[in-house]
Amino acid sequence: MASKAIAIVAGVGPGTGAAVARKFAAAYPVVLLARNPDNYESLVEEINKSGGKAIGISTDVSSPDSLKQAFSKIEEEYKGASVAAAIFNASGRFVRKPLLEMSVEDFSAGWEVSCKGAFLFSQHTLPLMLKHAGDSSSKHPPTLIFTGATASVKANALMSGFATAKFALRALSSSIAREFAPKGVHVAHAIIDGVIDIPRTKDWLKDMPAEAKIGADDIADSY
């Protein structure tokens, strides 16, 4: 007998990824992917102690081999399960530099995760989402969500590498949506247009009211 449909969150950290994982864990067993186990271990424990079901897998989404191994572990844990929701929240190394001072590695750092990683993640999740789309008993269509940013639509100075990667992610998600929507998979690209209220941004916009930042839980609610 196949396992219950699951949700997979790639790019789990103390902010948006964790909030999204908690939200989806209320309805599905969740798989949390992050390169550093420190980013998901306490969250996995929290979800499991609160009555949910979660596993974490150390994964480099920009590596074909790493993702292949991760999805093999998912199949071992949730034999035959379909994917009801897949959230790509991973983002590459943030580089803010003048164009003439950037190395090739600086420029490609964001692309490796935001574009290549999203492509690889989609290739692994979509077959399992198509399986869910064919399940007449499912309450909702399978949904693939990509987390974008202001840079997905606006490229500011010193942000050429980051913005290029985010533009590419938006193009990728748009193409996937047009290919897979007719097959029953809902695809969304969310433009998070502002500063997210997470530990890393604690000192940002200090002189502004609390609503100047976007709450990670609010993003999770929308997802």
Fold and architecture overview:
By secondary structure, this protein is of the alpha/beta class. Helices cover 41% and strands 17% of the residues. It is built from six helices and eight strands, in the order βαβαβαβαβαβββα. Strand 5, helix 5 and strand 6 (186-192) form a beta-alpha-beta unit. The model has no long low-confidence stretch (mean pLDDT 90). This is NAD(P)-binding protein.
Quick rundown:
The protein is α/β, with parallel strands linked by helices.
Order of helices and strands: EHEHEHEHEHEEEH
Shape estimate: globular
In the sheet with the most strands, the strands line up as 3-2-1-4-5-6
Q: Which class of secondary structure composition applies to the elements? A: alpha/beta
Q: The biggest beta sheet, please? A: 6 strands, parallel
> Would you count the extended β strands for me?
8
Q: pLDDT average, as an integer?
A: 90
Rg = 17 Å
> Which consecutive residue ranges, at least 5 long each, have pLDDT under 50?
none
Strand content: 15-25%
Distance between the termini: 29 Å
Give the proportion of residues in helices: 40-55%
Quaternary structure? single chain
Enumerate how many helices there are, as a single number. 6
